[in-house]
Amino acid sequence: MTSSTALLTDRYELTMLGAALRDGTAARPSVFELFARRLSGGRRFGVVAGTGRLLSLLRDFRFGEDELRFLRDNHVVDAGTLTYLEDYRFTGSIHGYREGELYFPGSPILTVEGSFADAVVLETLALSVMNHDSAVATAASRMSIAAGERPLSEMGSRRAAEMSAVAAARAAYIAGFSATSNLEAGRRWDIPTMGTAAHSWTLLHDTEEEAFRAQIDSLGTDTTLLVDTYDIREGVNTAIRVAGTELGGVRLDSGDLPTVAAAVRTQLDELGATGTRITVTSDLDEYAIAALAASPVDYYGVGTSVVTGSGYPTAGMVYKLVARQDADGGWVAVAKASTDKGSKGGRKAAFRVLRDGVATSETVVVSDGFEALGSAAEHPDSRPLQVTLVDEGDIDASFEGAAGTAAARAHHLQVREELPVRALALSKSDPAIPTVFLDRD
Amino acid sequence: MTSSTALLTDRYELTMLGAALRDGTAARPSVFELFARRLSGGRRFGVVAGTGRLLSLLRDFRFGEDELRFLRDNHVVDAGTLTYLEDYRFTGSIHGYREGELYFPGSPILTVEGSFADAVVLETLALSVMNHDSAVATAASRMSIAAGERPLSEMGSRRAAEMSAVAAARAAYIAGFSATSNLEAGRRWDIPTMGTAAHSWTLLHDTEEEAFRAQIDSLGTDTTLLVDTYDIREGVNTAIRVAGTELGGVRLDSGDLPTVAAAVRTQLDELGATGTRITVTSDLDEYAIAALAASPVDYYGVGTSVVTGSGYPTAGMVYKLVARQDADGGWVAVAKASTDKGSKGGRKAAFRVLRDGVATSETVVVSDGFEALGSAAEHPDSRPLQVTLVDEGDIDASFEGAAGTAAARAHHLQVREELPVRALALSKSDPAIPTVFLDRD
């Protein structure tokens, strides 16, 4: 298996490329836009994630001998197209929202410019990465808001496909989680890793006490013991008897968590273990986290709901041609006409308009003709949202890797502060701010 | 990046391993079981998928220099554990359901036997693969039943993370889909690939007619033209004018599909294009497919809903220690005691009991003591469900790759015939057959 990402692509992109090479339209300068028509699930804001991963995958978007052989043997494209693909690398430009940025319906999250040939083949890869990672980050941000100052750990790897799990850990971290249980995510992006113990650990031993003792012998007193394999009250007693009152923490993975957490806190305090922290982990989502706000919980471990976008596993973003040159070199804004899937043609510049530091609208300046697309100067209280990610094929490495991930997290936590208070509610509603399109033709 | 899969693992598995190596329990012969406590979403059956992928990933579950360095530098485990991991490869055995088999609550889908050390570290990888692929396959099988004889194509790559998309294409194929748009899935597992054209293809051109002409010049008359970029009626007229009545097909991606499909069929027939097929693709799920049963549709293209498990993106399977030896070498059946997450200890043998070829129960024989676990002979009308996937570290390659994928698909389509009629309904209900546990202690 090669490391090429070029076949993470829908077949029709390459057959369209083949037809466009044949009729000469492949060279037409084109602008594709990646955006969401709406926010899934009545969410009040979305969180852009995946950008840094996409840029790294774009570096490997090359058709090597193995990829070309598959396309040739399966008659996917003709010989002329194979020759084109042999030398393909993306030489266009991509502008877009910073990773970690908020988005709203119609926000031009990525703008991909190049020849039609350059840009059409990136559709699937770009959407796969951005739809998944943004869905996870959006859910994670809501959880992070609900958790307040209490740290959240992502522990959902087992409920996501093995490579999505790694990406989900990263997206959750960007959106405010503190750590992940996934070791590969730790290796790739320097995300702090954490873990406690499984029920199998206790069951492996003849008694709970032996299991706790062995864990402490190996990991020290500061570890977190899982106390609900048999009887929780007895488990807590055993934990403190074995570890002493300096025990780092206990984990609760079952039962009615507000009730159980309160009882365990009281018990720990009575035993003198006032510094022993309580981690809860049983099927938490943003609503369960919010419901635990008044409970004596120190850490949340979130699994299934965060890695599956808490009911909305894809952000529903699309990748559309919005402008292209005609045969005479004039720009034409384009959009599908059918009524139920309206999208807006034209190249766009986006600004978050603020008043006293609070976001009031997503303003998107649209220009078919590529004249001045508006600038921050025209909007004195606004913040321009787009940065250059790829400049004529040159990928900005600062958005990739561990550094890019850390920067995305910092950016998210910063811009989240601009949200109006109504954006923080968990119930379904309209987007927190309207998207305003300004035509500048 | 290495090709090792060893860090697709939750940190606690390695810290438990470290503690077990220290206290001597790492060597205890152990039995872990992968199973689902219930069927997600009121589904009437589940479909096992992922087994072939898991076996291939297991081949790469080795800790190389890169993995060991990460674990050392981040103080995940101690030096003794690193030494153990350096030589780790799975030397235990795995028995389990064939890929493509149906499952029900409590079905012992995988039984992993080995030392505790051998088996504990596979938890996350096994669950990641099986939970994702089985969720997709279960949704896909319902769609395939709803579609009847009409072929289904999987086109959802853009709505799943880039590597999950490849796995999802495979799972859908196993569960009855005919093809995928995903080229990497075609390369890896010889799954037929397909595609039509995007709206961007039409919008790239100055007129719809030019776009259609170019597509036909490149792909021949047998291609499928997307006719809903502007006005569908005009699009169909243009398509037949350009391609002639031998046009392969048209694709509809918007509107009220039953209405639109009927109108387009009438129009095509009036134009003499009686053999031109209609493909529909707009946000289909099993319910929309069923609702189109009486419409003149020839092919379904399914995206978001199949790759996200149609509302249930994870199968919710768990991986539990069910039996282990004690210090004297006697077997002990184990299970967590807490009331809300009951699981059944002991090693298990599973049979599908049939009457006149129709499944009537999932019979699971449980034995703590490893005496005779029941055999097919005891159940004359039953079919044993478990096969050997890994025999003392030796992985059966026949379940992997393209051949394994094709075998899984054939097996699924065959055993689906055993389902009672009530299992085919799409509404939420109880499992189609009960799971009966027989204790043989």
Automatic annotation (TrEMBL), chains A, B:
Entry GO MF terms: glycosyltransferase activity; nicotinate phosphoribosyltransferase activity
Keyword vocabulary terms for this entry: Glycosyltransferase, Ligase, Phosphoprotein, Pyridine nucleotide biosynthesis, Transferase
Residues in Nicotinate phosphoribosyltransferase N-terminal domain copies: 7-131
Catalytically driven reaction(s): 5-phospho-alpha-D-ribose 1-diphosphate + nicotinate + ATP + H2O = nicotinate beta-D-ribonucleotide + ADP + phosphate + diphosphate
Pathway(s) served: Cofactor biosynthesis; NAD(+) biosynthesis; nicotinate D-ribonucleotide from nicotinate: step 1/1
E.C. code: 6.3.4.21
UniProt xrefs under Gene3D superfamilies: Aldolase class I, nicotinate phosphoribosyltransferase
Domain Nicotinate/nicotinamide phosphoribosyltransferase residue range list: 152-319
Root EC class: ligase
Post-translational modification: Transiently phosphorylated on a His residue during the reaction cycle. Phosphorylation strongly increases the affinity for substrates and increases the rate of nicotinate D-ribonucleotide production. Dephosphorylation regenerates the low-affinity form of the enzyme, leading to product release.
Gene Ontology BP annotations: NAD+ biosynthetic process via the salvage pathway
GO cellular component: cytosol
Function noted in UniProt: Catalyzes the first step in the biosynthesis of NAD from nicotinic acid, the ATP-dependent synthesis of beta-nicotinate D-ribonucleotide from nicotinate and 5-phospho-D-ribose 1-phosphate.
Family, as annotated: Belongs to the NAPRTase family.
Protein name: Nicotinate phosphoribosyltransferase
Organism: Microbacterium ginsengiterrae
Top-level taxonomy: Bacteria, Bacillati, Actinomycetota, Actinomycetes, Micrococcales
